[in-house]
Amino acid sequence: MATRGLSPDEIKRRAQLAFDKADARKQEASRAMEAEQLERDAVLQKTVRLKALRLAKEAADAETAAIVADEQARAKAEIADAKAAAKAAKTAKAAAVVKRVPKAKPAL
After folding, report:
1. Distance, CA of 80 to CA of 100 (rounded, Å)
2. Residues 6 or more apart from 3 whose CB is under 8 A from it?
């Protein structure tokens, strides 16, 4: 900056203006960095909240899957027991029929 031929007051005024501009830029940069940090913090908080929700959902889904698997296993066992009982009843009925049929007497 050329200062030749300027009065001392003019030099001071220009220096102050340059200082004020630099100070204003520093303040603006500081505000921008603060806003960026706030945005990062908000994103981080949202991420943490969503992760907690996802983990809770996965735990609930796993619990539900375990309950469903248990109920299905119980239903299969009941069906197997019913089939076994029906087979036993059928075998018992067949044995009873065999007992009722008189044996053929040998012809002499």
Report:
1. 30
2. 11, 14
- The pTM score is 0.52
Both structure tokens of 88:
């036993």
Contact yes or no for 14/1 (Cβ under 8 A): yes
24 near 32, Cβ under 8 Å? Answer: no
CB proximity list for 18: less than 8 A, separation 6 or greater: 1
In the block, residue with structure tokens 């004020």? 20
Q: CA triplet 70, 76, 80: central angle to 5 degrees? A: 145
Tell me the C-alpha distance between 106 and 8, whole Å.
149
Q: Which residue has the higher pLDDT, 40 or 90?
A: 40
H or E segment and range at residue 22: helix 8-100
pLDDT of residue 3: 72
